[in-house]
Fold:
Amino acid sequence: MKANKIQSKKRSAIKHALSSVEWQDLRQLSRVQIVYNVILPYPFLLLSWWFASQSWYVLACGASYFFFAAAFRQAHDGYHHSLGTSKRTTTGILLLLSVLLMTGLHSIRATHMEHHRNPLGDSDIEGALAKLSWWQALLGGVTYRLDIYRQGLRLSSRRNRRLAWLEFASIILVVMAAIGLSTVTAPTAALLAQVLVYHILTMTLANVSVGIIAVWGVHHDCDETVARTERNKLVNALTFNLLYHVEHHLFPAVPSNHLPELAKRLDAAAPHLTNQQVLPRMSELISFIKNLWNKIKDRYHHSNDDGECPIRKRFA
Structure:
């Protein structure tokens, strides 16, 4: 309850600070942007499959990363109906992505909406990793995903729960197909099994790892607001604008396409809300290295002092 009261006070202060920010115009998408949003992940997916079929696994992993990041963005915008597509089309996209990403997106959507209603509060299962240390968040990936599924099914409407179970059943069928193809000796079946097994393994690893990046990385140690952001243009390009996270929390209806513009407006109107970065600044990194080095030196000198001859100490 205490955490919820603190978060409520934070939200009130943030709401007052944002009263002057113009954002409604950023909800609009052009036809080109809508098409971009819909097709974004799939060229990377096809490329990863082709690399895997050639046994070029390093290149395949690179393409799989871009597919996962782009698909994660597409699903995330789909949760908030900001892809520019109809609700029925968005539902179809989430169903397809659930099978391709090997995770139940309609279940996750329910917990994600709770995450926005009560960010980092007592009922926010999605944000729970942000309260742990980085290594606990990294090791908790598997149990975290299962907790998300359970919470999502509890929070879901009847329709959303049916869709979630459909996704889980479809994923099981894909895994069974991969196992079945692995037992067939025909060249075509063996090639399909090779690609399918590769895809299942990489998506499973990505899903287990997503919590440390998409939750802990953007929410840990947030004081002024509930999330962090990023201003490195290259990093934002490589993550498809997913790290503009405080911007997303403050204005969840704004599509990912327009988050860079929203970031500029927030920097001008409320810079204190955007000063916590996802990646450490160079000055912070140097300070961390110096502090670590000083701790190592202190321990070294302390151990030398403890090992000194007690008689020599007495006559020094």
Observations:
- The two ends are 59 Å apart (CA to CA).
- The chain has two domains: 2-273, 282-315.
- The chain has a mean pLDDT of 88.
